[in-house]
Amino acid sequence: MAYPRSVNAAEPPQSPVSALEPWPDTVHWQPISTDLIWVELLRLAMGLAVLLVGLALGWAFTGHWLFGAGCAVVLLGGAWRVVTIVRAVRAWGYAERADDLLVRHGLLVRRLSIVPYSRMQFVDVSAGPLERAFDLATVQLHTAAAATDARVPGLRPAEAARLRDRLTALGEDRAEGL
After folding, report:
1. DSSP H helical segments within 23-133, as ranges?
2. Which of 19, 50, 59, 168 has minimal Cβ neighbours within 10 Å of its Cβ?
3. What whole-number distance in Å separates Cα of residue 32 and Cα of residue 92?
4. With the C-alpha atoms ordered 39, 43, 48, 54, is the resulting torsion angle positive or negative?
5. Nearest-angstrom CA–CA distance, 123 and 132
6. pTM for this one?
7. What is the pLDDT of residues 74-113, one digit of tens each?
8. Which residue ranges run through the membrane (predicted)?
9. Per-residue pLDDT tens for 132-166?
10. Per-residue b/e over 98-125, b at no fewer than 16 CB within 10 Å?
C-alpha cells in the first residue's frame, strides 16, 4: 500500500492511499462553478426540444403509438440526464501541485489526469455563447500527446486567466531545463 508524500519530511504520512482511489484526499481540490450545471441543462434542453418536436410532429401526422412512446422515452432519458449532469459537474475539480496539475472528473468511470508542467505546450482559454452568458470559461491544456490533453471547464474568466498565466509560466520554467 502506498503512502502519500508528506510536506514535511519529519512528519509521518497521514493515511494510506489506495491505488484504486483515483481522487486522493491528500490533495486540496478546487471545485468548478456550479453555474456550469445551468449551461449543461440548457444544452440538454435544446437537444431534447429538437427531438420532442420531431417526435410530436410524427405522432400528430401519423397517429402511430410509437411516436408517443418515443416522446415518453426521450422525456425519461432527459430526466435521467438532468440528475447525471448535476452530479457530473460537482465531480469536476482541479489541483495545482508543485510539478503538475491534477484534473478529476467522472461518475461511473472516475478519471484523474495528471499533467506535468514541463510537458505542456500551450494553454487555451475558451468560452462559447452559453458559457459567456453565465460568465464562465474553459481552460484547455495541450501536450505533445493529444490523448493527454486536459481541460477544466466552468471557471470564472478571472480564474481561467490566472490559471492560464500560472500554467504558462510554470511550463516555461520547467521546460528550460530540457
Report:
1. 35-62, 65-91, 129-133
2. 19
3. 6
4. positive
5. 19
6. 0.78
7. 999 999 999 999 999 999 999 998 888 999 998 888 888 8
8. 41-59, 65-83
9. 999 999 999 888 776 666 899 999 999 999 999 99
10. eebbbbbbeeeeeebbebebbbbeebeb
Is beta strand 150-155 parallel, antiparallel or unpaired with respect to 137-143? antiparallel
The grid cell for 21 is: 482511489
In angstroms, rounded to a whole number, what is the distance separating the alpha carbons of residues 175 and 120?
A: 9
Name the grid cell of 116. 506535468
- Which amino acid, 173? D
Nearest Cα residue to 149 out of 101, 93, 87: 101
AA identity, residue 1: M
